[in-house]
Automatic annotation (TrEMBL):
Record protein name field: Major facilitator transporter
Organism: Micromonospora lupini str. Lupac 08
An example Gene Ontology biological process: carbohydrate transport
The keyword Transmembrane helix is assigned to this record: yes
Gene Ontology MF terms: symporter activity
Domain of life: Bacteria
Gene3D superfamilies reported in the protein's UniProt record: MFS general substrate transporter like domains
Transmembrane annotation, as ranges: 21-46, 52-71, 92-113, 119-138, 159-179, 191-210, 244-267, 279-298, 307-324, 330-350, 387-404, 416-435
Gene Ontology CC: plasma membrane
Stored InterPro entries: MFS_2, MFS_trans_sf
């Protein structure tokens, strides 16, 4: 059967209990650390602690993602095979729980390594970490599509996830810079940060595995074998609604990770106060704790598509304010970052709740193939964002350094710091908005639920 999911309402309108919802959402705490900390600190770690030139640092973060684009859909296929054979995807989730080891190793660069050798060390463990992230995230995100729940309940499920994910992003985004040593960050500080956060990641991810099992027990769907390999991938990519949603999400993911990578540079070189990194991160992430219920209500009233377009537009406007820099005044700049944070909350909740809508509407292959492509897109955006910012720094002539050094940056580099943090994200988010407008499933999906 193709087209919309037209099973009787009784089969799709189950209300999920809060206990299993909370347990499932707990897994996002660990995912939040992996999504946030490398995106926030890894480029800065390379250029300002390990003396890696910005062009090489950008490549170090980008090239490992090439493997992700190819391997994540394969992980999705394996998740569908597990679902068909065993009735769940638990084994992949447990394999993904090795991610904290790769995370700790990522920042444990041996003391004698700087420049290209240090970049190679980071690249190796970044590849390993991204693959383990896929092993957890792909089956984890397939869960909503596996359940017999409707349009609004899928949004509610992802709202729970979003709140917990926000807690993970906020906590790690605030704590990580402090653990590295703040203004006096050092190699030892980064190693300490990696180990401490890895322990928390592991605990949260194990709770998520148990919570996912409880959630599946509360509203289990039918087990489907689907078809695998390139045939499944072609089916997903031929899905028009999925293509436009994925394309828009790639632009959104690239933009948000670009901003995240630029925070330490903007705080140090534009605002001239490295300690403001934590303030900007808090302003970017904390609003989600307050506004996620609002996005949920708005999506129920006007639909996910209209709400998402509004979030994208608000992000673009806030970014333009940041391009003004110091003349705008610190309160205005922090408020602009908060606007980005409000929009970011919508862009985390809504696309992730639209993904299972697309999967249930297609009914052509297993959910894992779709989520495999989705996580590959997410990973690619997480690399393209820092790479784009690194290119801005390279064009501006940014001077790399080791920890403790404070080289004088040319005026062009300082301009690149500002425009890369404000103007470039505005342009990229407008592209996301134009792509998202091509998605047309939402109104039909609402009517069918």
């Amino acid at each position: 059967m193709t087209g919309l999911d037209r099973r009787p309402a009784a089969a799709t309108d189950a209300t999920l209990p809060r206990g299993p919802l909370a347990g499932f959402a707990a897994g996002s705490l660990g995912m939040g650390v992996w999504v946030t900390v490398p995106g926030l600190l890894l480029l800065y770690f390379l250029t300002d602690v390990l003396a890696v030139g910005p062009w090489l640092a950008g490549l170090t973060l980008l090239l490992p993602k090439v493997a992700d684009v190819l391997l994540h859909p394969w992980v999705g296929h394996r998740a569908d095979v597990e679902q068909a054979r065993r009735g769940d995807r638990r084994r992949l989730l447990l394999l993904g729980c090795a991610l904290p080891v790769a995370f700790a190793a990522l920042f444990a660069v041996p003391g004698g390594l700087t420049g290209a050798p240090a970049a190679a060390w980071v690249a190796v463990f970044f590849v390993a970490g991204n693959l383990l992230f896929a092993a957890y995230q792909v089956p984890y995100l397939a869960t909503p599509a596996d359940l017999r729940i409707g349009y609004d309940e899928r949004t509610r499920l992802m709202a729970f996830r979003m709140v917990v994910l926000t807690l993970g992003i906020l906590a790690s985004g605030l704590v990580a810079p402090l653990l590295t040593g703040g203004d006096a960050a050092s190699r030892g500080g980064y190693q300490r940060m990696g180990v401490v956060l890895a322990v928390g990641m592991l605990a949260a991810m194990l709770v998520g595995v148990a919570g996912t099992a409880r959630l599946r027990g509360a509203a289990a769907g039918a087990t489907t074998a689907g078809h695998g390999g390139w045939r499944a991938l072609r089916t997903a990519l031929r899905d028009r609604q999925f293509r436009w949603l994925v394309a828009a999400y790639l632009a959104m993911s690239t933009t948000t990770h670009l901003v995240l990578a630029g925070v330490p540079y903007y705080a140090e070189y534009e605002l001239r106060a490295p300690g403001l990194t934590t303030v900007l991160v808090a302003a970017f992430v904390a609003p989600a704790l307050l506004v996620t219920p609002g996005w949920l209500l708005l999506a129920r009233r006007v639909g996910k598509q209209r709400a998402l377009l509004g979030a994208q537009g608000a992000f673009a406007v806030g970014s333009l304010v940041l391009a003004v820099g110091r003349p705008a005044g610190l309160p205005v700049l922090v408020a602009a970052v908060a606007v980005l944070g409000v929009a970011f909350a919508g862009m985390q909740l809504l696309p992730f709740s639209m993904l299972p809508d697309v999967i249930r509407a297609a009914r052509a292959t297993g959910a894992g193939t779709y989520t495999g492509v989705w996580t590959a897109t997410e990973a690619l955006g997480a690399a393209l964002g820092p790479y784009a910012y690194a290119l801005c720094l390279t064009v501006g002539g940014f001077v790399a350094s080791t920890a403790g050094e404070s080289p004088t940056q040319p005026d062009a580099a300082l301009a690149a710091v500002r425009y890369g943090f404000g103007l470039l994200p505005a342009v990229a988010m407008l592209a996301a908005l134009l792509l998202q407008r091509r998605y047309t499933l939402d109104s039909t999906a609402r009517a069918a639920s």
